[in-house]
Amino acid sequence: MIKLNCKDGKTLSFNLADDNEANEWQKLSGERGFQSQITGIGILYNTQWHTLPMPKRFRRIDVKAELIRVQKDGEMREIGERIICQADDVQISLIVYYGNRPKMARIDVKKIGKKRFTPMRGNEYANS
What we know:
By secondary structure, this protein is mainly beta.
């Protein structure tokens, strides 16, 4: 489950394993106005909250969250959740893996270059 803190003080929750909530998250996260309201995002799993505050002093920030699924023995399994934050030309991702042995989370920071296209929003990056 992901939780978001917004500028207006609200905390929103989305269970990405539930199709309705995942669709609602996809719809909202595709809106530029909604993205600009997010001040922090985290993954709540097994009573532990792994958070990613929004980076400061960047021009453009976009957040994406998704379930991580793998196919094993012909069966799709959910093995974790990932939050990806793109801040200008830097990408930060937080992955929380399901399971208890061992409890594990991973953070990656990559310099990936200027983002040119977001499928959900069209080609608005080309003009900025």
